[in-house]
Design brief:
heterodimer, A: alpha/beta, Pectate Lyase C-like, 3 helices, elongated, B: alpha/beta, 8-stranded parallel beta sheet, two-stranded antiparallel ribbon, about 15% strand
Chain lengths: ~240, ~450
């Protein structure tokens, strides 16, 4: 199925006519060689896996809504979705920047190790699940079980959080501005330190948001589940 | 003179009493390594009907018997080609030391087969030593790195494991040393939990899309395996085929683990024998035999097991515990500077003995196989381990081809169900082969 046809130098793909395979193959194997750094993608029409597996300093602008796994496993690239994103946006991202101008569905930024994911609107369930070092900034609210088992990295929630925020957290830190319906197992509110305010200010600035860090609360792990013990039988 | 008559209860025997009293004392269930210890119907319950008047055998050592195996021919442009159909099952760095992973890679490369990563990611040592390396994509995504996806020869999406289907995993803190912690992005020494569900997809329809993402990232070059723990195998295999798998790995309940609750190991999942038949039935039902390859694992030990698995319809097998035993697991000694050194004292410290040990979870493996301890891991020299594993795989392969030739097969993949009979009614029903000396297959008309 691999398309081995030579691809012409291009800076625009229209998925109404071009195939996803051609687009991704070009982004993986040829764009950097051609010296093309900015690629426009039109008519994504909810296609899955657009611009996944990138490993170069590219700027991909996607004009419309996308399906699952946009910019999945991204390294180095900057990917902007001018629309909404389906599940798993920027999943397992290692570095770079992914910006969803609209809303994001479930598991945005799942297991991402590095880079910055910005979601201007709301993010659905399990935002930042298994996060491993990336930063996520959500302009709106997040669904239940966000930051579930998040190990490292930071999640900024400018709106509200639904149930079980930060369930089974390890070392990741959550900054939340709005209401929290409930915290998950082993998650707790902690006082904001100067380092938190400074980090939050920088993340908000990188995301083009002007909220006051003083409006946020910090959620982190109480670490009571770090070691298996008899009195926490329902928590494991 | 005779002593008092002592009568042990069948329901509350000494083992059960010990279990209850331990639970009462600690409030914790037991966690241990390796696989099920209870007896379940298995490949020992099958026998071959070799050639006779109605079949023509091949000469035992002289006539060619092909073992070459192709996996991942459905969609991938670069399928896996193996010299033998016996592979190394997925086992994690964390459960095993980097030296052991290195040994597995060396041996697999020498005999022309594949090895597989596990939870915790790909080590540089195993990539360097393994000509053909299968990279697991697990629910935890510990250490999961797109560079390793690109470096791998195939990707294996792990849904479950035979020892603990539906149970996720755990690596107790004593094995989470600085390197393991760094690879998994976890605090050193934490009792680490591996998730039971993938973070970014739920259900078979999502899996279709996840597989396509992996294909896009790998430019459709690498085979995608899907591994399931044996439970509802018939349905799971059909769904994995639907999802677009090139290869399906089915891991029966005898499969091993580095650390899991005993209650899981002994009471969840179905035997490999039953799982294999259901998997083959599912592929037959979809007319996908030969298009989607089937790898079976879970308690495979010998060439006889491998031959029986092939006769039932497997394209290859994966071996985990057998591989560890070949390296020295449960030996009474380890090899240092060419000399056998007794490990009995270290077994005793763990409250066990060679032949009984399942203490992988402690990280204190007396023979240096399942440990992250800097001193203990030196007890396994990768070169020695690789040599032993190579010998084991060669032996298993010779046994396999010996049986295949006796059944008149020029290719081990030509072994077929008609070559088998069962010793017990249970095995006949599970494997779908006749009870020996009859034409009766329980549950089948006629």
């Amino acid at each position: 199925m691999a398309n081995l046809r030579p691809l012409l130098r291009r800076s625009e793909f229209d998925l109404a006519h071009d195939s996803l395979r051609d687009l991704n193959l070009y982004l993986h194997k040829q764009a950097a060689q051609d010296g093309v750094s900015q690629i426009e993608v039109k008519n994504p029409d909810g296609a899955h896996s657009i611009a996944c597996g990138l490993d170069a300093d590219l700027d991909v602008q996607i004009h419309g809504h996308v399906g699952y796994y946009v910019a999945g496993m991204n390294k180095h690239a900057s990917v902007t979705v001018h629309g909404n994103a389906g599940p798993g946006a920027a999943e397992n991202m290692m570095s770079g920047r992914v910006h969803v101008r609209g809303f994001a569905s479930t598991a945005a930024g799942a297991s991402a190790h590095g880079g910055l994911l910005i979601i201007d609107g709301d993010a659905s369930l399990r935002c930042g699940i298994s996060l491993k070092g990336a930063d996520i900034v959500v302009g709106g609210s997040v669904g239940s079980f966000s930051a579930f088992m998040a190990q490292a990295g930071r999640i900024v929630i400018c709106g509200d959080a639904e149930d079980a925020l930060g369930d089974s957290l390890y070392e990741a830190v959550i900054y939340v501005r709005g209401k929290v319906r409930s915290l998950g197992a082993d998650a707790r509110f902690e006082p904001m330190a100067d380092a938190d305010r400074a980090a939050l200010k920088a993340l908000l600035a990188q995301s083009g948001l002007a909220h006051d860090p003083a409006e946020f609360r910090r959620v982190a792990s109480a670490k009571s589940l770090y070691h298996w013990h008899a009195d926490a039988d329902q928590e494991y | 003179m005779t002593g008092p008559q002592l009568e042990e209860s069948a329901g509350f025997d000494r083992s059960t009493i010990d279990y209850i009293q331990r639970a009462a004392a600690t409030g914790l269930y037991e966690i241990r390594g390796l696989g099920a210890k209870r007896r379940v119907p298995n490949f020992d319950d099958l026998l071959f009907l070799a050639a006779s008047l109605s079949r023509y055998p091949l000469e035992g050592y002289r006539e060619r018997c092909v073992t070459k195996t192709l996996l991942g021919t459905r969609f991938a442009t670069r399928p896996i080609e193996l010299a033998i159909p016996i592979t190394v099952a997925g086992m994690s760095f964390g459960a095993l030391s980097a030296r052991v992973k290195d040994a597995l890679g060396r041996a697999a490369t020498e005999v022309g087969t594949s090895t597989t990563t596990g939870d915790g990611g790909m080590t540089a040592e195993e990539r360097a030593s393994s000509k053909t390396l299968i990279y697991q994509c697990l629910p935890s995504r510990y250490g999961f790195d797109p560079d390793d996806v690109r470096r791998a020869d195939a990707i294996e999406i792990v849904i479950g494991q035979g020892a603990k289907p539906g149970g996720g995993g755990m690596l107790l803190g004593q094995k989470v040393n600085p390197r393991v912690a760094r690879m998994r992005t976890l605090p050193e020494g934490v009792d680490q939990r591996s998730a039971s569900r993938h973070p970014d997809w739920t259900g078979p329809d999502d899996l279709v899309i996840k597989i396509k993402e992996l294909r896009e990232i790998t430019d459709w070059e690498k085979p995608i395996y899907v591994k399931v723990g044996a439970t509802r195998v018939f349905n799971d295999v059909k769904l994995a085929v639907h999802a677009g798998a090139d290869v399906i790995v089915v891991d029966g309940m005898q499969g091993g683990t580095a650390a899991t609750q005993t209650v899981f190991i002994e009471h969840v999942g179905i035997p490999t024998l039953a799982a294999l038949r259901q998997a083959v039935d599912a592929l037959d039902d979809l007319n996908m035999r030969g298009t989607v390859q089937l790898v079976i694992s879970g308690g495979i030990r010998s060439g006889a097991d491998v031959a029986k698995a092939h006769a039932m319809g497997a394209d290859a097998v994966a071996i985990g515990q057998g591989v560890l035993v070949a390296l020295g697991c449960n030996s009474d000694s380890y090899i240092a500077d060419g000399q056998h050194v007794s490990a009995l004292e270290d077994y005793a410290k763990l409250g066990t003995a060679p032949g009984f040990c399942h203490h992988c979870h402690t990280g204190k493996c007396p023979v240096g196989v399942t440990t992250q301890d800097a001193a203990l891991e030196l007890r396994l020299d990768p070169a020695v381990g690789a040599k032993r594993l190579k010998n084991y795989f060669k032996t298993v392969n010779m046994e396999l081809t010996t049986i295949a030739r006796a059944c008149g097969k020029q290719d081990v993949h030509h072994l077929e169900k008609e070559d088998l009979v069962a010793l017990t009614v249970e095995a006949a029903a599970m494997a779908g082969v006749p009870l020996a000396g009859t034409s009766w297959i329980p549950g089948r008309p006629g």
